[in-house]
Amino acid sequence: VQLVESGGGLVQAGGSLTLSCAASGFTFSSYAMSWYRQAPGKEREFVAFIGFAGSSTNYADSVKGRFTISRDNAKNTVYLQMNSLKPEDTAVYYCKAPGYWGQGTQVTVSS
Known about the structure:
The protein is mostly beta strands. The chain has no helices and eleven strands.
């Protein structure tokens, strides 16, 4: 199983980024996927969830209305569209499949 995140970077507050997570080694379309994040000195926290078919989603209160999770089962990829970014969104963002984590991608939001 391999999960490879991309799309992180440095953005000003109020800006947008889209993260991607390319999955391989398992039947992607059969599994729910999630995004988590970990800020310096803090525990890893849940950000967003999407069901295997893409019709069910759930978000942390801190990102609700600003972030959108989606997936393309034909491309074995899950996305996280992040809008209206805030400095407190600065963290390493991780893609998660049941039992597996990606290596993470850094998102830095400057004020």
